[in-house]
Amino acid sequence: MTDPTYDFHGQVALVTGAASGMGLAAARGFAENGAAVALLDRNADAVEQAAQSLVDAGHRAIGIACDVTDEAQVAAAVDRAVETLGRLDMAFNCADVQAPPSDAADETASDFDQVNAVNLRGVWAAQKHELRHMRTQGSGAIVNCSSLGGLVGLPERAAYHASKHGVIGLTKSAAVEYAARGIRINAVCPGVVETPMVAGMLEGQAEAMAEIIKQQPIGRLGRADEVTAAVLWLCSPAASFVLGTALPVDGGYTTH
């Protein structure tokens, strides 16, 4: 079975958290289907290398250092992407951090603030400044990265799951607001996907992670390209009647 292909030639995509994991996979997916891509990440060296790898493969791409917790940086990065690449048609807001597992009575305010600054406020800022350009065009598609943690609750994950539930609320509200303006906004909710962040969790929280993986009926970790496939579809004309959804890409985790 071959992956579906899309014609994104003449279009521009922006991806946050694009230096590794699901963000980098999505950036590659957009590029391989013809889009010019702006890759944003707080790791300046890594995002430049990621963008250069796409350029070396014959694609049009730029890497921009951007900390999504700083709205001014987000605004400047989105503006730079549009100035350099000419427009903005698609975005995948994927920057993400985990909070250390903690009893809900023991979670620190600093951990709560950090995870929500990246996972929720960062998505809010990116979406806000993407919409500034898309509403002028009267077209666009945005996909925000939530998580299975946006759909369920798990022990010792209160701060992280709060941030991911928030992303879904943000997505649904903005989707309704912009539906009639030619802009579609959706979210994806990945399960446990093989990424550098998950690799660290597997090492540091082996028993808990093994239990979570067992809850994925498919019986394995997800792959970043499987999340990319959902993101590309949601951004494509094939999903023209889909908006405000929180699409699980979780190997069946949230079915039980």
From TrEMBL:
Keyword Manganese in annotation: no
SUPFAM superfamilies named among the record's database cross-references: NAD(P)-binding Rossmann-fold domains (SSF51735)
One Gene Ontology term of the molecular function aspect: oxidoreductase activity
CDD domains to which the protein is assigned, alphabetical: SDR_c
Keywords, sorted A to Z: Oxidoreductase
Presence of the UniProt keyword Cell membrane in the record: no
UniProt-listed InterPro entries: NAD(P)-bd_dom_sf (IPR036291), SDR_fam (IPR002347)
Family: Belongs to the short-chain dehydrogenases/reductases (SDR) family.
Stated name of the protein: NAD(P)-dependent dehydrogenase (Short-subunit alcohol dehydrogenase family)
Species per Swiss-Prot/TrEMBL record: Saccharopolyspora antimicrobica
